[in-house]
Amino acid sequence: MRDFNDYRDDNNLKREAGTYIDDAPMYLFNQGVNYEAYRMLGAHRGKSFAGKDGYLFAVWAPHAKSVSVVCDGNGWDRNKGRMYKHMNSGIWEVFIEGVEPGQCYKYSIETFRGDIILKADPYAFYSEIRPANASITADLTYEWGDEEWIEKRSKTPPYNAPINIYEMHFASWKTHEDGTYLTYREMADELIPYVKKLGYTHIEVMPLAEYPFDGSWGYQVTGYYSANSRFGQPTELKYFIDMCHENGIGVIMDWVPAHFPRDAYALAKFDGECLYEHPDSRRGEHKEWGTLVFDWTKTEIWSFLISNALFWLMEYHFDGLRVDAVSSMLYLDYNRREGEWLPNKYGGKENLEAIEFLQKLNMAVFERLPNVMMIAEESTAWGGVTAPAHEGGLGFNFKWNMGWMHDVLDYMQCDPYFRKGNHSKLTFPMMYAFAENYILALSHDEVVHGKRSLIDKMWGTYEEKFAELRLLYAFMYSHPGKKLLFMGGEFGQFVEWRFAEQLDWMLDEYELHRGMAKFSSELGRFYQEHRSFYEIEREQGEWKGFKWLKASDADNSVLAYLRRSEDEKEEIMVVLNFTPIGHALYTVGVPEPGDYTVVLNSNDKKYGGDGSGTKVYHTKNIPCDEFEYSVDIVLPPLTALYLKKSPLTKRTRKTTKVVGAEKPAAKKTTTKKTTAAKKPAAKKTTAAKKTDKAKS
Question: What are the catalytic residues?
Fold first, then answer.
C-alpha cells in the first residue's frame, strides 16, 4: 500500500485518485468570497467516478503533512482514507465509496512536527452528542412547505412591521419529567402555540450550532455547521422552523462569530498550527471567556463564516441572525489592559479587518435575502451599526438598544422616593431612539449570574412588583423600537434563569402570575394590532410617530406621549405613573381636541390590579404646558394607560376617584395606596415602606 505522502505533488496519482473539486471554488475560497464554501468542504453524499455511492470529504488544512479520513466505514484506519492535497489552496479531498448517512468520522492529521491529531470536521452537518465529538455524515434533504412564508418575507421589509421576539433557550424552556430535553418536533408542538397565544411574531433561539459545554448556553461553538444533536436530527430542526412559518412565526438564531473554544478536537490549532485563530495572543484570545478569536487577516475565515451565516439562512430558512458580541470584534482593546492588545496599522484600536468582515457579511446576506434580520449585539456607541455598508456603516439592519435597557432597569430598581432624581433615565434614551434601527431587549444576560429575574429587580411589595413589571412592559411596548423578552419574564418568574432546569411552570397556579401572563399576551396582541406603535421608526420619518406630552414631570415621576400611525388616522396617548402615589385628576396637555378612551390599563383586575383608571375622557379648551387643549385623567399608582383618540363627542363628564384617594384639592392631588409611602412623595418625606411577603 502506497504511503499517503506519495499522493502529494504527483499529477499521475492525482488523476488516479480522481479529484472532484474544481479550481474556481477553491480560488474563491482563498480570496474570501466563496460564500457557499459548505457545498465544497465537509462531507457530501454522491457517486464516485465509478458510479459507486459514497461521500466526498474535503477539508482546509494547509499546514498539514498528510490528512486521512477515519470513519466507521474504514475501521478508523488512517491508511484507508488518504486524501489528496490541492497545493495552491491547502484543501484536501477524497471520495470514499460505501459510506452512508449516519456514520461517524474525523480527520486524522499528520503535522509537520510528526504528531497525529484527530479533528472533527469544521463543515460537518451533524455531530455526536457530548461528551462524544465525532462528526456524522448527514443528508439534509427536506421537503419544505413554507413557500408562501418565504415569498411574503421577500416582499415585506421588517422596518415598519410589528416585531415582537420571544428569546428562549432550547434546553431549559421546558423538559420531560425526567429532565431530558424536548426534541425539535416536540418543541414545535409545545412552543409554537404558546408564543402565538402570547402575541409574539418571532422566536429567537439561543445558539443551536453544536457546542460541548452545557454551561456555555451554546456560545462556545465547536460545530458551526452542525445542528445541535441534543434535540434531534438536522431535518427535525428544519421541521421545527417549517412549522413556525406555517403558524406565522419567524425564527431568529443567535450566531457566534466573535470567538470559539479551545477544545482539542475542534478548531484550535486545527492542522497543528494556528489556522482559524490569530497566532498572537494579543489578538487571538479572549481571556475573560477563555476562548480564541478568529484571525480576521485570513480571507479563508471570511469564506468560512459568511458561508456559515448564509447556510443557516438559506439551508435552514432562519429569518435572521442575532450576531453575538459584536463589540468584541470591533475593538482591538476590548476587555484588554494596556500591553495586552496590538493597535491597527494606523495606531488605533479599531479592528479594521473585522470591520471589513462585518460589512462584507451583511452585504452578502442582503444581496441574497434582502428582508431577513441581521441583528447586532453591540453595546457601545459605535456609529452607523445599522447604516448601509456601502455608506461606511456596518450594514446590520437592527441593533440591540443596550443603553435603553440598562437605564430603564436601573430606574425600575430605584425606590420611588429617589426616582425624581433619576427621571432622565427614562427620557434620555429618546435622544438617540432614532439613531439606529433598535430592538429593545430584556434578554437572558439580565436575569442570570446574580442579576436577579426581571420581577425580582422591581421595587416594592409582592403585589407592587407585579404592578411595576406590567408598567415596565407597557413602557417598553409603547417606546420606539422592536421588542424582545427572554422566556420566563412573560409570567413573572421570580427565580433567576437556570440553564439546567426548565422554567417554573407551576407558577400558573398563582393568580398574580396568571394575570401577568394574561397582560403579556394582551400587550403583545395590542402591539401587533395598532399601527401607531410600530409603523414609524427610524426609516419612516423618525419623530413623526412620537410626540412628548409630559417629559419633565420628575416630581410625580410621570411620562406621557403620543404614538401615531403613518397616515395619522390612529393616535394613542400613553400615560405612565412610576410611583405608588395615585392621582384622582392628572392633567395632560394635548395638541387637538377629541375623546380619549382607555383601551389598555395595566391596573385592570384581570391582570392583578384593582381596576381603577378605565374611562373615557374628553378634552377641554384649557391650555396645558405648550398645548392648546388638555384632558384630566384618573391615574392610579404604578400604572400604565393606553388611551385611543377619537373625534370629540358631547358627553357629560363625570369625576371618577381612585380607590383610596384623598379628596382632590384642585386639578391635581396625590392619593396614596395602602402599600405606598406614609407621606406623599411630592413632600419629600420618608420613602415608600416595603413589606416583606413570600415570593411565589
Answer: 324, 377
